[in-house]
Design a protein that fits this description.
Layout (H helix, E strand, L loop, with lengths): L2 E9 L2 E6 L8 H15 L3 E8 L3 E8 L6 E4 L9 H6 L23 E2 L11 H9 L5 H12 L2 H8 L1
Antiparallel strand pairs: 1-2, 1-3, 3-4, 4-5, 5-6
Length: about 160
């Protein structure tokens, strides 16, 4: 499985970012602690974690200055049954759609789950995030590029993905 994950945080009018390895996380608290470590190091009140896995799904995790209960959005809540990292992220708020019935056809449309308004103050509304999540032919990396562009760190994300 190919997974890209990076933490981003505002730094005045610019953003900082760092690619991270989430292979050792066992619980949502591990993810929150990682994000809070970056917040402390970078002296910021907000951190975002962007995750893209296998060109199939993405997640956005937000931790604010309070450091409690991260906000999580999954582009398809059903992936918690198939991907260990998605299962860990789903611990925040009990995310996850029921396991879909097996079929020989194509995978049904995604079922976004989580806190869809976690990016509203950064320029991506809940409706737009949901629309991008279920839009046919839109790859998870494309959605994360939109999130980064609206938030102001598109160049930073692009430099990590090269």
């Amino acid at each position: 499985m190919s997974t890209f994950a990076a933490v981003f945080a505002p730094n005045g009018k610019t953003w900082r970012g760092s690619e991270v390895d989430l292979g050792d996380v066992d619980a949502i608290d591990d993810v929150t602690d990682l994000m809070l470590d970056f917040a402390t190091e970078w002296a910021t009140d907000l951190t975002l974690l962007l995750v893209e896995a296998d060109d199939e799904w993405f997640a956005v995790v937000r931790v604010d200055e309070s450091g409690t209960d991260p906000k999580v959005y999954l582009s398809d809540g059903r992936v918690v049954h198939d991907h260990p990292l998605a299962e860990v992220l789903s611990e925040a708020g009990g995310l996850g759609a029921p396991r879909p019935a097996e079929s020989a056809g194509a995978r049904p449309d995604p079922r976004p789950d989580g806190d869809g308004d976690l990016l509203t103050d950064l320029g991506v509304t809940e409706d737009e995030l949901a629309s991008l999540s279920v839009g046919g032919g839109v790859l998870p990396s494309d959605v994360l590029a939109v999130v980064a562009e609206r938030s102001g760190f598109a160049d930073l994300l692009d430099s990590m993905r090269l």
